[in-house]
């Protein structure tokens, strides 16, 4: 015998091993894919951080010593040509204005500036930032198309003097590549960030000018600084821009970096005013071309364009990834907060109602109960489980152990107990669902309780569990399952998770009538409800979730009885926990898919489908699947953002979780001591929980087969009970 | 040993000589019996049919190759990007 599916034997009884139909060609494949994914994401985040100048020093210090700056340059004109190792400075001719705009392009202000220039028919020179060019290449293309001149203003606007040589070269070459891609030209002009007039040039910046010269770039400074970045008012901008006594001037303005309406308005006044005074407007090349050869832009080669294209798209994709991550973080934050508030409201109300003196399900239910215990190789734990069940306080308990072809003497172990109200049924191996179906068929009574063989119940648990059946509409009852083995930290983590899950989530689901799962460890059923649901199915790996959904759809109420307490043995190692949760997540997805029609059906099925399924999909699948965003951005924040702020944000999330946990522990009257493990839970357990969900979702997508796996029992819970 | 002669079954000439021939009329003649609904086998859905499982492995294979192709493309683009920058900086 064994487990059969689709007419094929797929494994031994209940023993279900990992992916079928075929072994992967190499088992490290998914780790390689995960590694590639992480690498690409890290690259995109780093590119995004770079383009947002998170690597760049941007402080403008006081000018340093000026011993090496030639006097001719320091007292010369605004164009410094240091190409080919020489150092020539050029002055602008009289009555000539070169308008220069730094820091663009900006999607809001650059078009406005271009419109004003177009209106007056005036050319200008734009020193664009490479990262901004990557984001808005269309404006740079428009500049060139409308006859303006484009120069480089570095890629991320750092103070180049503070950077090593290779970074300086990169800043300049990247900007030129981006311009080449955007407008198809190469530019010989550069303006160094934080530079103003040549008189403020110090030794450090002079070396940068020479380095730019070595890259075949001519540095452009200014004669008059409009100081428009300080938004001093239109009059002040016009005043500061105007040169004295009919002299010419390279005027420094900005078309980006903040609100620039004053700059636009000032231009509209400055241009006609200067024209009236007999000034002509031109570009750097137009003003200096006669004295300095090679200022005209060249045609960009294919190599430059490809390099620029790669860069531009890398920045675009990185920006998009960043925006997506922040949007997801916002979504996760809002959903988590909403869920927490809803949980608080509903759980507290639920607990109050249940604790009220007037609360009762109806007349006491004392009808006999059959407890079905499916068992496969549970010799270590079965005796304690059966004894705790058989000696319960409920009148008329029949314990029915369904032995699913165990080969470790499980059935003999039960028989040797010699308890009068315990029966053992040996069934041909067919998995847990088949064993439970056999149990339902063989049960002597109509009230059924299903208990796992590794679970020990409190003496009054069965009695408490069946009380809700006083209400004839109730078809199934979920018990309150706790982790019995919490000596190791992994047990403590699961204990915290169980207490929160059972006390908050289940109370909420109970109030909303959409309980997704009666735990296999402790659940009560009416035999009729199971019949109406069509019995237990082997179609999913979470037969308890599947059955619960089917019972809902058959029109029965499913409730939670928190006073019926059972202690179960939770996985003891991370590997076992992974396998258990892998099965649960996959099984839940299968069950939801199996019952998807409930979304459109009429009657109780539709009521459950439209209320329960979206809720479960959102909070049990989508929200945990999005949880990695929190960690990705936490790591990103640690590297590229304010570390203190990132830490505070992370702690805020932790505080929400601690408050939630405290509330859950209080509602369940559990001691708060295990909560010390909560901060540590954020560092390992949480990640395992969502990675396992990703793994299960990937298996569902690819159509691989996931099978039941038998957990290795330590017998810890059973040992404590005896 | 007895007589080893086995003999030959007799067939009527009517069957032996009859050759299939096209029907002389386009109209259907007679009436087929109603199917016996009472004893027809009901096609039950296979309750053990696992959900999401694609036993042929085609879906997984296709998806895997798409993922491989995307990964390869992205890695090549990233490598090109870095290389182009290294060449410039170097």
UniProtKB/TrEMBL annotation, chain A:
* GO terms, molecular function: transferase activity
Name the domain of life this protein comes from: Bacteria
Q: Which InterPro entries match?
A: Glyco_hydro/deAcase_b/a-brl (IPR011330), NODB_dom (IPR002509), Nucleotide-diphossugar_trans (IPR029044)
Q: Can you tell me where the transmembrane regions are?
A: 31-51, 324-348, 615-641, 647-667, 688-706
* Keywords, comma-separated and alphabetical: Glycosyltransferase, Membrane, Transferase, Transmembrane, Transmembrane helix
Domain NodB homology: start-end pairs: 95-282
Give the PANTHER family listed for this entry: POLY-BETA-1,6-N-ACETYL-D-GLUCOSAMINE SYNTHASE (PTHR43630:SF1)
Protein family according to the UniProt entry:
Belongs to the glycosyltransferase 2 family.
Q: What is this protein called?
A: Bi-functional transferase/deacetylase
Q: Which organism is it from?
A: Asanoa iriomotensis
């Amino acid at each position: 015998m064994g487990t059969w599916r689709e007419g094929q034997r797929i494994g031994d009884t209940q023993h279900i091993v990992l992916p079928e139909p075929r072994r992967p060609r190499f088992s490290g494949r998914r780790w390689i894919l995960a590694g590639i994914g992480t690498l690409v994401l890290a690259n995109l985040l780093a590119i995004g951080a770079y383009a947002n100048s998170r690597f760049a020093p941007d402080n403008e210090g006081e000018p340093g010593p000026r011993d090496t700056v030639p006097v001719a340059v320091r007292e010369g004109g605004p164009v410094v040509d240091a190409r080919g190792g020489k150092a020539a400075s050029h002055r602008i001719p009289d009555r000539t204005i070169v308008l220069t705009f730094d820091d663009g392009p900006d999607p809001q202000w650059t078009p406005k500036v271009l419109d004003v220039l177009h209106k007056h028919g005036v050319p200008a020179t734009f020193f664009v930032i490479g990262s901004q060019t990557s984001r808005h290449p269309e404006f740079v293309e428009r500049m060139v198309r409308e006859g303006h001149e484009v120069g480089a203003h570095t890629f991320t606007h750092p103070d180049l003097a503070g950077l090593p040589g290779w970074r300086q070269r990169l800043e300049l070459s990247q900007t030129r590549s981006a311009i080449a891609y955007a407008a198809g030209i190469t530019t010989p002009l550069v303006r160094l960030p934080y530079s103003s007039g040549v008189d403020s040039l110090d030794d450090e910046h002079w070396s940068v000018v020479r380095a730019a010269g070595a890259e075949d770039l001519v540095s452009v400074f200014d004669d008059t600084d409009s100081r428009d970045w300080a938004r001093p008012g239109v009059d002040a901008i016009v005043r500061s821009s105007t040169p004295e006594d009919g002299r010419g001037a390279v005027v420094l303005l900005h078309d980006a970096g903040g609100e620039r309406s004053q700059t636009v308005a000032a231009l509209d006044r400055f241009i006609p005013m200067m024209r009236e005074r007999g000034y002509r407007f031109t570009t750097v090349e137009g003003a200096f071309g006669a004295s300095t050869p090679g200022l005209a832009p060249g045609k960009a080669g294919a190599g430059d364009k490809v390099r620029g294209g790669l860069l531009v798209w890398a920045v675009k994709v990185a920006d998009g990834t960043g925006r997506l991550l922040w949007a997801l973080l916002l979504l996760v934050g809002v959903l988590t907060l909403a869920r927490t508030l809803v949980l608080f409201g509903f759980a507290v109300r639920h607990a109050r109602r249940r604790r009220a003196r007037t609360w009762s399900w109806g007349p006491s239910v004392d009808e006999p109960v059959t407890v079905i215990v499916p068992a496969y190789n549970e010799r270590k734990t079965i005796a304690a489980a059966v004894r705790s069940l058989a000696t319960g306080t409920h009148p008329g308990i029949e314990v029915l152990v369904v032995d699913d072809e165990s080969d470790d003497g499980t059935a003999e172990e039960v028989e040797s107990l010699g308890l009068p109200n315990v029966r053992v049924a040996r069934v041909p191996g067919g998995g847990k669902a088949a064993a439970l179906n056999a149990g339902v068929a063989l049960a002597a009574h109509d009230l059924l309780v299903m208990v796992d063989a590794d679970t020990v119940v409190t003496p009054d648990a069965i009695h408490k569990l069946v009380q809700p059946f006083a209400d004839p509409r109730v078809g199934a009852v979920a018990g309150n399952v706790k982790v019995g083995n919490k000596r190791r930290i992994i047990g403590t983590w699961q204990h915290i998770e169980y207490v929160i899950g059972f006390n908050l989530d289940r109370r909420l689901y109970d109030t909303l009538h959409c309980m997704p799962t009666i735990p296999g460890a402790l659940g009560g059923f009416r035999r009729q409800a199971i019949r109406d649901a069509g019995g237990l199915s082997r179609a999913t790996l979470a037969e308890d979730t599947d059955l619960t959904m089917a019972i809902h759809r058959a029109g029965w109420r499913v409730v939670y009885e928190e006073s019926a307490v059972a202690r179960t043995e939770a996985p003891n190692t991370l590997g076992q926990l992974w396998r258990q949760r892998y099965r649960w997540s996959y099984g839940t997805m299968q069950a939801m898919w199996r019952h998807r029609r409930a979304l459109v059906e009429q009657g109780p099925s539709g009521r459950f489908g439209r209320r329960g399924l979206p809720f479960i999909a959102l909070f049990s699948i989508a929200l945990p699947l999005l949880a990695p965003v929190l960690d990705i951005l936490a790591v990103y924040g640690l590297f590229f953002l304010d570390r203190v702020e990132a830490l505070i944000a992370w702690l805020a999330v932790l505080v929400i979780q601690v408050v939630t946990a405290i509330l859950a522990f209080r509602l369940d009257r559990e001691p708060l001591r295990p909560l010390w493990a909560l901060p540590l839970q954020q560092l390992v357990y949480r990640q395992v929980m969502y990675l396992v969900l990703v793994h299960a979702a990937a298996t569902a997508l690819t159509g691989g087969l996931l099978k039941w796996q038998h957990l290795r029992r330590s017998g810890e819970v059973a040992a404590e009970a005896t | 040993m007895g007589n080893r002669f086995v003999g030959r079954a007799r067939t009527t000439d009517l069957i032996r000589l009859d050759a299939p021939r096209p029907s002389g009329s386009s109209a259907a003649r007679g009436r087929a019996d109603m199917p016996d609904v009472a004893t027809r086998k009901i096609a039950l859905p296979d309750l053990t049919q696992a959900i999401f499982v694609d036993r042929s492995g085609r879906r997984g294979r296709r998806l895997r190759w798409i993922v491989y192709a995307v990964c390869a493309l992205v890695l090549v683009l990233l490598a090109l990007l870095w290389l182009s920058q290294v060449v410039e900086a170097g």
